[in-house]
Amino acid sequence: MRSHGSNARKRRAPTRAVQRALRERDSGQYALPLERIEDEGKIVAIASHMGSMKKKRGGAHRHYLRGLDLEERDLAAARRAYELCLAGDCRHLEARINLGRLLHLEGLLQEAEITYGSHEEPSAILYFNLGILLEDLERDGEAIEAYRKAIAHDPGMADAHFNLALLHERNGDAQAAFRHLLAYRRLLGATKKKAR
User: Fold this and answer.
1) Residues 6 or more apart in contact with residue 96 via CB below 8 angstroms
2) What is the mean pLDDT of the chain?
3) How far apart, in whole angstroms, are the C-alpha atoms of residue 192 and residue 156?
4) Could you give the 3-state DSSP secondary structure of residue 140?
5) pLDDT 10s digits, 114-158
6) Residues 40, 74: contact at Cβ < 8 Å?
7) C-alpha to C-alpha distance for 126 and 150, rounded to whole angstroms
8) Which residues pair with 2 in a beta bridge?
């Protein structure tokens, strides 16, 4: 069980496979895959699918990197850093995803929805996190659409299939639930084979 605001409910079973992103244990949301290079004290993105990092606006990107560093010890300061990044570069997808996730975790659901919704570049991770947010807002139809968009941008996102299966089951569409559960299991099986 997880507690998010006053709503407590079971969280979806996380997959063992980490697909180009890390999952937050408590919320189920994806966070960007990052690695700290200890010698230089820099943080670098492992997955390049989130967009090109080479020509980000200098000052805005520095705020993003500061936000990444601050998340470990001061979430409010990290949030401000991501906000400053987006003020300097409103198309910075990584900052938008991380800011939306932090707002959601703080229970600021409307602000998180606005943050996710004002993106220009489509992203499977952004749509997945938006789907979780919309579920928490009890807007299942919109959550289903967000998960479908996540799958459209990353057909291998098993967790989006799993969440869709749960939503369809809850809404009485057994056939759609079964279809997405099969896709989830198929993707998990493929991931396990690759790991061997």
Assistant:
1) 82, 86, 115, 116, 118, 119, 126
2) 79
3) 13
4) helix
5) 999 988 888 999 999 999 999 999 999 999 999 999 999 999 999
6) no
7) 8
8) 9
